[in-house]
From TrEMBL:
Source organism phylogeny: Bacteria, Bacillati, Actinomycetota, Actinomycetes, Micrococcales
GO molecular-function term, one example from the UniProt record: ATP-dependent diacylglycerol kinase activity
Family: Belongs to the diacylglycerol/lipid kinase family.
Protein name: DAGKc domain-containing protein
Keyword DNA-binding assigned: no
Keyword terms of this UniProt record: ATP-binding, Kinase, Lipid biosynthesis, Lipid metabolism, Nucleotide-binding, Phospholipid biosynthesis, Phospholipid metabolism, Transferase
Domain DAGKc intervals: 10-153
Amino acid sequence: MTGPRRSPRPGTGTWFLAVNPTAGRGRALEHAHRAAELLRTGGDDAVVLAAPDPAALVELVRDRLRASALTARALVVVGGDGMVHAGLGVLVELAGQGVAIPLGIVPSGSGNDLARHLGVPDRDPEAAAGRILRRLDEPVPRLLDVGRARFADGRTACFATALCAGFDAAVNERANRWRRPAGSAKYLGAVLVELLRLRTISYRLEVVDAAGAVREERREAMLLNVANTSSIGGGLRIVPDARHDDGLLELFSVAPMGRARFLRVFPTLFTGRHVGLDAVRIERVRSVAVDAADVTAYADGERLAPLPVRVDVLPSALRVLA
């Protein structure tokens, strides 16, 4: 999708680092400046782009990347999966216009699931920036598939990790309202609260499987995800074997069960041992349309829109320096 791109000569490029300056009580902004210092060691410039409002930050990033399309080394997102989500949309949009700019990640958020999947050092901005520098000149670029969600009202959103449409989306809704605790502890706490409202959801699906065959089905489930990478919620390894560069997505669901059994099953999501359970279903797909009553979809931990949604994959959409 992105096509070849001529890299700036050594010492003539610019790294753009996008960050929410209020995230982590200023920790993300500190990490952005520490990473920028290391990225400048090769003679390039490094510019930190910051805005507390997500929409304003997206506009700022888009404008600066368009103006520096020929000299931009990469967009480095500093934060969690929400920051990745914001940067991803800009990069996919520019790639569709013939402007191919790589993605770098300095994890500094509460989830960091894409960074975890890609093996990016956590809470260490210099180590993450060093990884980015080493990947810049690798002979075989590493490519990232991107999930795409299209809603009935015409809205479209891209995601890196997974789209959630069920119990896990309700958990995201609650967890995002909490400032503490951080990471998987926050997600676990929200899970325990949402267990009191546990319900079975009746889904209507149209699935295009890995071979291209199309089928329609109804599925009763508690959780349903369309995943591009392996984990959600700060380390829940819902699809441990997911690949980010195979041109496919993973349709993951958990059949209805009582609270007591769910509490026994839930810890296995952190280790991947849930994969062999009879209640768990994982299938590689090219696309899937999902509909259910009173369900709002989330992706990369960000609220999107109510169902129905059609999800497909943009294969090898971006180069990732990770």
